[in-house]
Amino acid sequence: MARTDGRYGLAYTTNHPDSAARFDNLVSAYLGFGRDIGDHLKALLADDRDMPLAHVAKGYFFMLFGSAAMAERARKSLADAERLFESADTTDRERLHLEALRAWCAADLDRTTDVWEAILLDHPKDVFALRLAHFNHFYAGEARKMRDSVARVLPQWTDADPDIGYVHGMYGFALEESGDYARGERFGRMAVERNPKDAWSVHAVAHVMEMQGRHAEGIAWVNRHEADWSTTNNFRFHLYWHRALYHLERHEFDQVLSIYDDYVASDIASDMYLDVCNAASLLWRLEMYGVDVGDRWKGLAEISLRHVDDRELIFVSLHYLIALIKSGEVEAAARMAAQIEGYANSAATQGRVSARVGVGTATALAAFAKGDAGSAVDALLPIRYDLYCMGGSHAQRDLFEEVLVAAAVQARPLIARRLLAERTALKPHSAWSWRNYATALRTDGAPEAAVAAERQADAILSAA
Ligand SMILES: [Fe+2]
Q1: Residue 309 CA, ligand 1 centroid: distance in Å
Q2: Phi, psi angle pair for 73, to nearest 5°
């Protein structure tokens, strides 16, 4: 085996002169949500079937699917990689990647991320490690770690580096999730200017607009770049989900339903977890806005039934659970809730997440869906400030805040009134929140304040 330098001077142990360049192209395809990630990997392995790091990458990609079935395949890739590493003279960096995959396959996500961060100390331009760490920080709800992870390496990057736009976009998204909207938007826009096809960076700016209640601007932003980001893999449906959220805030329900049917749920059959998260979260929000979603839940049941035993990411499991509950799959939903509860005894990273917020959230979702709003409030209220640890974005986790608010409006008017005082302060552009505030105020004996809140909702909607 030989050592070949790839982009940024990173050394790869290879059996083919083109392998390093092909590996770099694979990583760039991953950064860009390319539809051809699998093709890149196949091309790499076709000429270099024993390249040690290629098998680690294969394992990573399986793990990124976030499902039990794919984790099984990742363990096979890990076994192949272990065997190849034994006989090859690999670099420290490559061996650390193997260690990260080993930790990931063992469900030790904290250790996995620590290993990637260790790689980045010595190799700040290992953008694969950077993007994977970004992913894991994101699903640990660690916005500040996600932000600082990119900030640490950024000074080593220059304008001449082909992937620098992706790095800026990652930083933009992490800044947004850390609440620094102005800088988040600046880095996101800078990245999109450099590479309009960079969907993650379009997405970073879309998040800023969501968090700041800039709904019309958000629609214009995603529409303006649609021709580019819609060429990506299923991640594009998440951007359609964002567009649907803006329309939802504007109470443009027909448009939300069209976006749901034409895009968000259009490829559910391909069994990607993010598609189900988008779809389940959008349908439940629509229902909380008083919209009849017809038989749309049924379409999510078939896929969710395949994932009853999944616990790779509790955030994702909760979305499968929602789909099962709402589509009337009572037995499967009960089994999934029991699975989440059972996992709370595990020392695995997501087991701890399950104990901290998974069990309580699952209890609340099931209670609210069957009309027991009081129990939903009792289960969610004590853990609401810990929900971040299940990961996902603020915008995604807001579903659970909305469930809490909607349940409180039904069963605990005083709590609802206080929660909505808080929510309308944070989201003054949310008509749904003002309208619920009005209901809570009326029920809690404050009719004049209720009229004022209703007026706020009307004003937002008539300006929309
Ligand atoms: Fe998002």
Answers
A1: 25
A2: -70, -35
Q: Among residues 315, 332, 326, which one has the least CA distance to residue 283? A: 326
Distance between Cα 255 and ligand 1 center (Å): 19
Residues 281-293: pLDDT tens digits?
999 999 999 999 9
Stretch(es) of the chain classified as CATH 1.25.40.10? 141-233
Task: State in Å: Cα 200 to ligand 1 middle.
Answer: 9
CATH topology of domain 1-137: 1.25.40
Q: How many CA atoms lie within 13 A of 401 on its CB side?
A: 19
Residue 318 CA to ligand 1 centre (angstroms) = 17
- Whether the pLDDT of residue 132 is over 90: the answer is yes
Instruction: Give 240 Cα–ligand 1 centroid separation in angstroms.
Output: 10
Instruction: Domain 141-233: give its CATH superfamily.
Output: Tetratricopeptide repeat domain (1.25.40.10)
Percent of the chain topping pLDDT 90: 99
Query: According to the model, what pLDDT value does residue 328 have?
Result: 95
Asked if pLDDT for residue 323 goes beyond 90, the answer is yes
Which CB contacts under 8 angstroms, 24+ apart, belong to 145-149?
Answer: 145/113, 146/170, 146/173, 146/174, 146/177, 146/178, 147/171, 147/174, 147/175, 147/177, 147/178, 147/180, 149/117, 149/120, 149/174
pLDDT digits (tens, 9 = 90+) for 353-400: 999 999 999 999 999 999 999 999 999 999 999 999 999 999 999 999
Whether the predicted pLDDT of 168 surpasses 90: yes
**Per-residue model confidence (pLDDT) at position 464:** 83
Going from the Cα of 94 to the center of ligand 1, the distance in angstroms, rounded, reads 31
